[in-house]
Design a protein that fits this description.
By secondary structure, this protein is of the alpha+beta class. The protein has a single domain, classed as RutC-like (60s Ribosomal Protein L30, Chain: A). The chain has two helices and six strands, in the order E-E-E-H-E-H-E-E. It has a six-stranded mixed beta sheet with strand order 1-2-3-6-4-5, covered by helices on one side. Helix 1 packs across helix 2. The longest helix has 17 residues.
Length: 124
């Protein structure tokens, strides 16, 4: 049995997918790009973009009653691996103890030509 997660605190899905799914105690978010759900704009700079993408991930998780502490795995997609250090500095602020497993990969292109997308798996 699965439950669709949907919140106005994260960007609306731009295709045939859900912002997130809860199946039992498992929560999986779709990739979250750094679009501010209130303005529809992408902030300037990889630091602000990382922060916004993470806030969007956390908004989806919150719909299932989860927080950053529940995340067990993330995947960070970067358009330019040269942004890794700056992304990593902001990303680290979301996980003060026992950070989750993570993959970070460089990709050719992301939705809306964003420079970053982050997805997460969490468990309650």
């Amino acid at each position: 049995m699965k439950t669709v997660l949907s919140t106005s605190d994260a960007p609306a899905a731009i295709g045939p997918y859900s912002q997130g799914i809860r199946a039992g105690n498992l929560i999986i978010t779709s990739g979250q790009i750094p679009v501010d759900p209130k303005t529809g704009l992408v902030p300037d700079g990889i630091e602000a973009q990382t922060r916004q993408a993470m806030q969007n991930v956390l908004a989806v998780l919150a719909e299932a009653g989860a927080t950053a502490d529940n995340i067990i795995k993330t995947t960070v997609f970067l358009r330019d691996m040269n942004d890794f250090a700056a992304m990593n500095g902001v990303y680290a602020t979301f996980f003060t103890a026992a950070p989750p497993a993570r993959s970070a990969v460089e990709v050719a292109r992301l939705p809306k030509d964003c420079p970053i997308e982050i997805e997460a798996i969490a468990v309650l």
